[in-house]
Amino acid sequence: MKLDNIRSDDNISELLKEDLNKGFRLLVEKYSSKLYWHIRRLVIIHEDADDALQNTFMNAWRSIDNFRSDSSLYTWLYSIATNEALTLINKRKRNAAVSINDLESYFANSQEGSTWFDGDEAQMKLQNAILKLPEKQRIVFNLKYYDEMTYEEMSKVLKTSEGALKASYHYAVKKIEKTIIKD
Amino acid sequence: MMQKLNDIPDKNPFKVPDNYFEEVNRKIISATSGFDKEVKVVSTSGRLRTYFLIAASVTGFILISYTAIKLFTTDKISPQVSEVQYNLNPDSYLNDIDVSSLEEKASSIVFSEERPEVSNKDIIEYLLLENIELNDIYEKL
Asked: Looking at chain A from residue 47 to 106, which residues have their Cβ under 8 Å from any Cβ of chain B?
């Protein structure tokens, strides 16, 4: 799977040089879903994830000329998407009324309720446990657990050493399991 | 009773509206495809001239700064610079931190028996990922 991604990203990378619009369209079609879910797991609210996803691709479009072909499109896009999600979370923190610390409370108090959440009790517990992690550790956990990203790739996305990421994920799992058992 | 992460079925609990991805892809593509990026062609001699101008500006700035510092600072204000050099990525989370001084002190940090084998630098970066305050790190060292 990873090898196919690399070959395909190489093709897109070449196409971006020959026909920028066509190459970018392929990039959007290939990565919009992955990036959306990565963002959504961090920001929770669909509308916010939608905004952040579009901002991600607009930023990518604006800086496509600066993209170095010897680095990976995959990690480059994930890096932009992660920054967009963090920007949104930090903006939300400044407005305490919309801060999300617990899904059940959020669903109870929001207009959309649980319209865009389809999980059972176990999933609710898991998502709440993930929400309790420090935000950077949440990102590490999500990238490893849901996106199955390698530590090498994650290191490029988060500009942090593989050792620190391994430790962070290890303790994230411990914390989540402890929270789930307690609940 | 659920004890492990693996006990939880692998299912995405979040939903999106029907046809969401088709629509958002269309929006993104139409927002970008109408704008042709200008391809700037810079001749080699023009590029070289640009590089010379940049080099001259940087050199001039360095000379002026050095002269100003020499003229206006006294011997009492001479910070000792650590000899340890780090090549930090400009976007790194560590940019606001004096990593070299933290590393020197981190060697005495004691973790539980489950501590994975990582370097002191890795420990510090991990602590920062845990959003632990710098003051707390200093207190524990």
From this structure: 50, 53-54, 57-58, 61, 64-65
Which tens digit of pLDDT belongs to each residue from B88-127?
Answer: 455 555 555 565 655 555 555 544 445 556 677 777 778 8
B41 in contact with A, Cβ within 8 Å = no
Is the CB of B92 inside 8 Å of chain A's CB atoms? yes
A1-30 residues touching B, CB cutoff 8 A: 20-21, 24-25, 28-29
Based on the domain organization, do A115 and A162 belong to the same domain?
yes
Do A2 and A72 fall within a single domain?
A: yes
The ipTM of this complex is 0.86
Residues A21 and A91 reside in one and the same domain: yes
By residue range, what is the domain housing residue A84?
Answer: 1-99
Q: Where are the domains of chain B?
A: 42-74, 99-140
How far, in Å, CA of A157 to CA of A143, rounded?
10
Q: List the one residue out of B99, B62, B61, B31 whose CA is nearest residue A160.
A: B99
**Are A67 and A3 spatial neighbours (Cβ–Cβ below 8 Å)?**
no
Count structural domains, chain A.
2
Global pTM value: 0.67
The pLDDT tens digits for A59-113 are 999 998 888 766 799 999 999 999 999 999 888 877 766 567 677 667 666 666 6
B32 CB neighbours in chain A (<8 A) are 21, 24, 57-58, 61
A117 DSSP β-pair partners: B14
Quick one: how many helices (H) and strands (E) in chain A?
9, 0
Q: Which of B28, B36, B129 sits opposite A168 (nearest CB)?
A: B129
